[in-house]
Amino acid sequence: MSASSTGRVPLVGALLLALASALVLALLPAGVALDRRIDGVLRATAIEDLGRAPMILEDRTAAREEALTMHAMSVATTAGVAEALAAGRGDEALAMASATAAMYGEDPVLVAPDGSWLAGPPLPDEAVEEVRRGGAPVLYLDDGDMPRSVALAPVGGGASGEAAGWMGIAGTSVPMDSTLATTLAALARADVTLIGADGRLVASTLSADTAQAVTSAVAAGAARALSEKVDEVMTGVGAIWVAPAEVPGAGTVLFTRAVDEELAALPGVRRSALLAGALTLVLALGVGVVVALSLARPVGGLAAAAGRVAEGDFAAPVPASNIEELDRLGRAFRTMRTSLQARLAELAEANTALEDRQRRLAGLQAELIRQDRLASSARMAAELAHEIRNPVANVRNCLEVVRRGLPEGSESTPFVDMAIDELLRMHELAEHLLDLNRPIDPGAGDCDPVEVARQVAMLAAVGDTSVEVDVRADPGVPRVPIPPDALKQILFNLVDNAREAAGSDRPIALAIRVDPATVTLDVLDRGPGIDPEVAAHLFDPFFTTKDAVTGVGLGLFVAEGLARRYGGRMEAGDRDDGPGARFRVELPRQAAAPGAADPESAEPGRAE
Predict the structure, then answer these.
(1) How far apart are CA 151 and CA 172, in angstroms?
(2) What is the SS3 string spanning 492-518?
(3) Full 3-state SS string of 414-456
(4) Among candidates 134, 197, 143, which has minimal Cα distance to 169?
(5) Mean of the pLDDT values across residues 441-469?
(6) What region does 83 belong to: left with phi over 0, alpha with psi -120 to 50, or beta?
(7) pTM to 2 decimal places
(8) Which residues are paired to 241 by β-bridges?
(9) Is the pLDDT of residue 198 over 50?
(10) Could you tell me which residues are beta bridge partners of residue 174?
C-alpha cells in the first residue's frame, strides 16, 4: 500500500531530512558502548545463572536424602524382613524388601546379620558400623559400574545397636544415571554431565562427542576461572562454561552451557545495529529539524507509555503517528503490552496454585507424621498390654484365693480387696490397648449408625438419668462398614467425654449427616470448648486433662484408633453455633439400607 493512499509518510522518506552529522556523532559511540554492554550483560547473566546450579543440586540432594531415608526405614521395618533374616531365610527377606523398595521405584539394599551381602552395592565398613549403632546414613558410592545414592537403616534393634536385637541392614539405592542428568538439566536450565569417581563419563544431556570433550578438558585441568563457581574450557566444539559440583564418593556433576549458544543473540543485535546505523547515515542526508520535531511527539508518547507499563500501568495511551513505521511500532507495543499483561496474570495464578499445593503438601506431611507416631505408640502399648495382662490375671486369682482364706473381719481383708480392684483396673486398661491392634474380622459386617446412636443415648441415660442426649439424623442414612460394637464404643466414649466436659445437666447432641461419600456423626456439647494447646494432643495415648484418679487418657485414643481401622477419621474442634466442643466421626457410606427409618417419624428426644 502506497504512502499517498494511506496518508502516512514512510520512515525512509522522513529520515532523509535528518541531520547526518548529528546522528553519526551520536550513534557511533552509542553503538560501540551498547555492543559492549550487551555482550557483558549476556555473559554476566549466563555465568551468574550457571553459578547457582550447584546450589540447586545441593537443595535437591538434601530433599532427596530425606526421602531416601524414609524409604530405607520403610524397607527396614517391612513386616517379616527381620524375622526372615533372623531365621536365615535371606531369599524370603530379599523378596519382601524388594517389594517395598519397588513401591518407590528404587533398588533394595539388604545385608544379613552375619554381614553377608544379599542385595545392593558393597558398603564401607564405617557405614555398616554406623548402622549397627542405630544410625540411618545416606551414602554416595561408585562401584565402577554406576554411581548410586544409597540410604541405609538398621533391621531390628535401634539406637543401642546389636544389644537391642540388631538383625542386619536394609535400605534402597538409586542410580545416578541419565534420568538424574535430565532432571537436573530441567531444574538448572543447563546441560548436565555426570562423571564417576574414577573420571569416567557416566551420563550427559550433551551429545556423546561434546560430553567426552568436556570431560576430558575438565580432567586435564584446561579450565579458566570466570568466577568462584564457573570455569571456561576450550573443546573441539567451542568454548563451554562449566560449573562443577562434587558428590563425595560418587563423582562430579558438571553443569555446562555453550558460550556460542548463550551469545547467539549478539550477532543478530550487531547486524541490526549496523543496519540501523547504515540506514540512519543514508537518511541523515535529508533529515531536517522540522521532521525531527514531528518525530518527537509520537516517540515521546511511546516512551511515556513504556515507562508507565514498567510501573505496572497497562492502560497508558499510545499516540498514533502518520509515520508508517512508528504507527506499526505503536500497534506492536499495544499487542506486546496486552500479551505481557496476560502472561503476568497467568504467572500470578500459577503462583497461587503453587502456594496452595505447598500448603496441602505440608498438611499431608504433618498428617503422615502424626499417623506414624500414633501407630507406633499403639503397637508399643498393645505389646506392653499383652505382656502384662496374663500376669495381672494370675496375681488377681491368687489374691482371690487369699481373700477366701481370710477369716471374717480380718484386718487384711480391705487391703486385699483394694489390691484386687486395682488389678481389675489394670486388666481393663490392657484390654483397651489390645482393642486397637486386634485383627479386623472380615465378617464383622456393618451397622445402622442411627440405631447405634439411639442405643448409646439410652445407655448414657441409664448410667446417669440427668444426661440428655438428643439424636438428630438426616433422612435415609445408609449403613456404614463398621461393627455395631465398635461404633457403639466410639460414640459412648465421645458422649461420656462430652458429659464430663460440659456437666451432666447440659444437653448433648448427636447429629448424623449424610454426604455424597461419607456418613458424619457429630457429638456436640455446651461445655467450655477445646483449648488450642490441648487440641493437638487429644488423640495421643495417655494424654488427659483429668486427674490420675478419674482418667488415664485412653478413651479418645481408642475411639480415634477404631475409626481409622474401619476406614474413617476423627477430628475435634469448637462448635460453630456458640460455645462448646464438637467431636466429628466420618465413616465411608454404603448403599442405603432398605426400610431406613424416617427421621421425621422418630420419637421426640431421639431424632429430628
Answers:
(1) 6
(2) HHHHHHHHHHHCCCCCEEEEEEECCCE
(3) HHHHHHHHHHHHHHHHHHHHHHCCCCCCCCCCCECHHHHHHHH
(4) 134
(5) 79
(6) alpha
(7) 0.41
(8) 232, 257
(9) yes
(10) 149
Q: Are the C-beta atoms of residues 159 and 133 closer than 8 Å to each other?
A: yes
Pairing of strands 231-235, 238-247: antiparallel
Per-residue confidence (pLDDT) for residue 333, from 0 to 100: 74
Tell me which amino acid residue 78 is. T
Asked if residue 175 lies in contact with residue 148, where contact means CB atoms within 8 angstroms, the answer is: yes
d(CA 425, CA 429): 6
Is residue 69 within 8 A of residue 136, CB to CB? The reply is yes
Helix locations, 52-150, DSSP H = 53-76, 81-86, 90-103, 125-132
Residue 355 has pLDDT above 80, yes or no: yes
Q: Binning pLDDT at 50, 70 and 90, where does residue 27 land? A: low
Query: What burial letters (b/e) apply to 438-476, b meaning 16+ CB within 10 Å?
Result: eeeeeeeebbbbbbbbbbbbebbeeeeeebbbbbbbeee
Q: Within 10 Å of residue 221's Cβ, how many Cβ atoms?
A: 8
Query: What is the grid cell recorded at 275?
Result: 543496519
Buried b (16+ CB within 10 A) or exposed e, 5-24: eeebbebeebbbbbbbeebe
DSSP state of 54: H
Which residues are within 8 A (CB) of 111 and not within 5 positions of it... i.e. 6 or more apart?
117, 118, 120, 123, 128, 168, 169, 170
Q: CA-to-CA distance for 149 and 570, rounded, in angstroms?
A: 39
Predicted pLDDT of residue 297: 63
Quick one: cell of 445?
A: 459386617
Query: Residue 547: left if φ>0, alpha if ψ -120 to 50, beta else—which one?
Result: beta
Helix/strand/coil (H/E/C) assignment for every residue in 147-207: EEEEEEEECCCCCCHHHHCCCCEEEEEEECCHHHHHHHHHHHCCEEEEECCCCCEEEECCC
| Distance, CA of 307 to CA of 311 (rounded, Å) | 6
Give the three cell numbers for residue 46: 549466563
The predicted-structure confidence for 278-327, as pLDDT tens digits, reads as follows: 776 666 555 555 565 566 666 666 667 677 777 767 666 776 766 777 67
CA-wise closest residue to 241 among 188, 198, 183: 188
287 vs 74, higher pLDDT: 74
Reading the block at residue 502, the C-alpha cell is 460440659
pLDDT tens for residues 480-521? 999 888 888 889 888 888 888 777 667 888 999 999 889 999
For residue 247, give the 3-state DSSP assignment.
strand
* Burial degree of 413 (CB within 10 A; 0-12, 13-18, 19+): middle
